[in-house]
Write a structure and sequence with these properties.
about 600 residues, mainly beta, Rossmann fold, seven-stranded antiparallel sheet, five-stranded antiparallel sheet, globular
């Protein structure tokens, strides 16, 4: 902004980075005392609600077992009553007994704080790399464990950003290397390093340094395990390099640039066979398109649409919402957010029509015949959109556990099965094993919520036409026998950074719905619910006013009229940026009791 605008911050005096200023501490203690006194009359109800929430938790529980790699290992995350942290266990093939891989409770015992940032067994499953934040400052140390003996290795990598990934590993020679990143003085991840097990951290090699303060670095292996992708990314632009870690030790491999950064261009590659598959927003396709490129020509000049198999293609999922041999063409109403590659399939996650969605693309078989067209195996044999019990839901590829979200539950490349997690406002998270070849889903586990009966609750989605004529979706949930015409409502929203505020299940909502409260989620502009344009074109920069300038408030007024709420029966909002709370309070003064009014809570 030129010239810059100066504003006085009336609350700047509250800043105390050391948390030691006696005047500020006394002020905060007085504020807390005032709050406790003001809410004293609701404490008996609050305790009952709290007890109901705690009572719904099954404290000892096993998450879904999932295969990892091609050595016959199955991993699982376990929680035990009375213990604060998860326990990761595993077994090999059909073994009956589970062995402990990492008990985070034991790791945390000598620490005042403990957070797991990464968990990665090496390809042979003989060593484990994991990272721990012992301070809460999001600065991690990477540790290594011998899974045969249970002993911790002397290698400890200090001062990392948390992520760790195995590079080239040769179990026969015991040569193993890992990649990790570090941060600059501003806590920005700016360097990616390579460490060889058994050597001192001072000998580690910096693989990439990102000097531009607008960019952060990240890294991770392709699903095939062949390439290490190293990314520099800002809020609007990214650039990807890669290392062929299957070809040998990193010291012998070059860092290759895939496509040079260009303002506003973002792209995300995956690997399968002799090709890259890339999600890109080039050519103004802000909701991303799928293209392919040969390994020998990875740059943008080699990118092309992924065609269907000539003449269509045979067995399996053909025609299930897509078509045999039909290309997966770009659609303005479809947003692609992420991609996972398997030997015979691509799984795309995104949104369509404002709803969470996933697609399965079956690829042509890879050929071992050198005379066959090299591009023949990079065609789409068939594709389909997956189907779920409710359209108004949140569906995504599963993670190992909510207690270990840094680990995905799909760790096998050569498979027909993928794990999906599904939930809605009235359905607890349910993990499905999905057969990508036959398009059939099997329930593996539903998160237990003790005392909860989903049949007693209902959910729907409505659209509210706001001031400029835009239709904004609102998701609703309630208990069927508790909802009343003049009952209370709790409205939440977000609408920032392109983040989708999906209708997901929360056990904390159940006691409220049992008392007649209608739960509502406003999918306002600035989020990603209706696609990238909902953020890029409708809720960012100069259009950010769509989020703040009355949209959420307008939905509040609509909610009051729809439910005939009294002024003291409506509460908004939760989960919203602080600025929107100010917007709510500002407009509340002008609505008045005759229009229902707003009360903050």
């Amino acid at each position: 902004m030129d010239p810059p605008i100066e504003r006085d911050d009336d609350l700047f005096w509250l800043r105390d980075d050391d948390r030691k200023d006696p005047a500020i501490i006394a002020h905060l203690e007085a504020e807390n005392a005032h709050t406790e006194a003001h809410l004293a009359h609701v404490q008996p109800l609050a305790k009952r609600v709290y007890d109901e929430i705690i009572g719904s938790i099954q404290e000892t529980d096993d998450d879904v077992p999932f295969r990892w790699g091609d050595k016959g290992h199955t991993y699982m995350v376990r929680t035990v009553k009375g213990k604060a942290y998860p326990i990761v266990v595993r077994k090999i093939d059909e073994a009956k007994d589970w062995e402990t891989v990492l008990d985070v409770n034991a790791v945390a015992a000598p620490l005042k704080y403990c957070s797991v940032g990464s968990f990665r067994p090496d390809p042979s499953h003989e060593l484990l790399a994991y990272s721990i934040d012992p301070s809460g400052y999001e600065t991690y140390e990477v540790r290594f464990k011998d899974l045969d003996t249970g002993a911790e290795l002397p290698d400890v990598i200090k001062g990392t950003a948390g992520s760790v990934s195995w590079g080239h590993c040769d179990a026969s020679t015991k040569y193993r290397e890992v990649y990790y990143s570090t941060q600059d003085d501003a806590h920005r991840p700016d360097k990616v390093w390579r460490h060889v097990i058994g050597t001192d951290q001072s000998k580690d090699v910096c693989v990439l340094h990102e000097p531009d303060e607008l960019f952060n670095v990240g890294f991770g292996k392709t699903s095939s395990g062949r390439f290490m992708l190293i990314e520099s990314e800002s809020t609007e632009t990214n650039e990807v390099h890669y290392v062929d870690i299957a070809a040998g030790p990193g010291v012998d491999q070059s860092l290759t640039l895939m496509q040079r950064r260009r303002m506003g261009h973002r792209y995300y590659p995956e690997h399968r066979g002799d090709h890259w598959f890339v999600l890109t927003n080039r050519d103004g396709r802000i909701n991303f398109d799928l293209v392919r490129a040969r390994l020998t020509r990875p740059g943008e000049d080699g990118w092309a649409s992924v065609p269907g198999v000539p003449g269509g293609g045979g067995e399996g999922c053909d025609g299930v919402g897509g078509g045999g041999g039909a290309p997966f063409q770009w659609s303005e109403g479809r947003t692609l957010e992420s991609m996972s590659a398997f030997k015979d399939f691509l799984v795309l996650e995104g949104r369509e029509g404002g709803f969470s969605a996933t697609w399965v693309l079956r690829l042509a078989e890879l050929s071992t015949d050198g005379d066959v067209d090299a591009d023949a195996g990079a065609c789409i044999a068939s594709w389909h959109k997956t189907s779920w019990p409710s359209q108004n839901c949140c569906v995504y590829t599963s993670v190992a556990s909510g207690n270990l979200s840094c680990v995905g539950a799909n760790q096998v490349f050569d498979t027909d099965d993928v794990m999906f997690s599904y939930q809605s406002l009235t359905t607890p998270k349910t993990v499905y094993r999905y057969d990508m070849r036959t398009a059939t889903a099997t329930v593996v586990k539903t998160t237990p919520v003790k005392g909860y009966d989903a049949d007693k609750y209902a959910t729907t989605r409505m659209e509210v036409t706001v001031r400029d004529g835009t239709k904004v979706p609102v998701s609703l949930a309630w208990r069927k026998d508790a909802k009343t015409p003049k009952g209370p409502m709790l409205l939440s929203g977000y609408g920032s950074y392109g983040v989708s505020n999906d209708p997901t299940f929360s056990r904390e909502d159940v006691p409220l719905m049992d008392r007649g409260v209608v739960m509502a989620v406003a999918h306002v502009r600035g989020g990603g619910e209706m696609g990238r344009h909902w953020y890029e074109k409708e809720g960012k920069y100069l259009t950010k006013k769509n989020t703040f300038n009355g949209e959420f408030t307008f939905i509040c007024v609509w909610a009051i009229r729809m439910t005939s709420c009294f002024v003291n029966r409506f509460r908004g909002c939760r989960g919203a940026p602080g600025g929107r709370r100010l917007e709510l309070h500002r407009h509340a003064r002008h609505l008045g009791p005759k229009r229902g009014g707003l009360a903050h809570g």
